[in-house]
Every structure is written in structure tokens, then in C-alpha cells.
Amino acid sequence: MSIHRKPRTAREPTIALINVVFLMLVFFMVAGTLAPPMESDLSLVRTADLDGRAPPEVLVIHADGRLSHRGMPLPDVVTYLTTAQDSDVVRLMPDRDLPAETLLRIADEAQAAGPKSVLIITEKALR
Known about the structure:
Blueprint: H1 14-31, E1 59-61, E2 67-69, E3 72-74, H2 77-83, E4 89-94, H3 100-112, E5 117-120
Family: Belongs to the ExbD/TolR family.
Subcellular location: Cell membrane
Main location: membrane
């Protein structure tokens, strides 16, 4: 009498897969630690009432397109670059009401004048 055995099928390594997923979960929990919640009795500093002053090495662009540096009016970006301490980086601080076309034109003029980079300074709000 011969007994026919069914061929044994290969079992899926589910335990190994679960272990890998668990290790990945632990890795991402450790690597991307969550920020602790802010303490309930802590109140943040309010800066809404402070006078906003431009940093000293910034080219201010007013709403009507006028340029100024340290409160002094300037005719163009090239004049600013000749007087700036760091002519490799031009920092533009546009007025909120400045038309985008004017900002882009002045940024293009600044880039054409030869600095390594042109930065636009904006307001960052904590919401």
C-alpha cells in the first residue's frame, strides 16, 4: 500500500514580514521624534505691536516702486550694489502692496547686475 502525500507548499514568511514592518515603525518613531506639546502655562511673545524695521543691508521697495536703503532714496539697484557691503547677495524687501510685475522687474535688474543670489524678504506668521 502506497501513501500519497501532498507536496508541501512553501509557507509565506509572514512572521518575518511583521518583524520588518515593526522594525521600520520603531525606526521612524525614533528618527522623526515628535515635538512635545507646548506647556499649557506658557504664553508666546507677541510681536504685533513692535515697530518693524528693515535690516540694515536690505533694499526696500515701496508700494509705488521707489527704492531706498537705510532710509535714503536710491535711483536704481546698481547704485545700491555700489554702496552695499555684501554685493554677492541682494536682499529685496518689497511692500505688501507692490505689484508683482514691479517686483519681478527689479529682481531681474538686480540679478543682471551680477550678484550671486537675489533674496526676497517676506513676513512669516505663526498661525
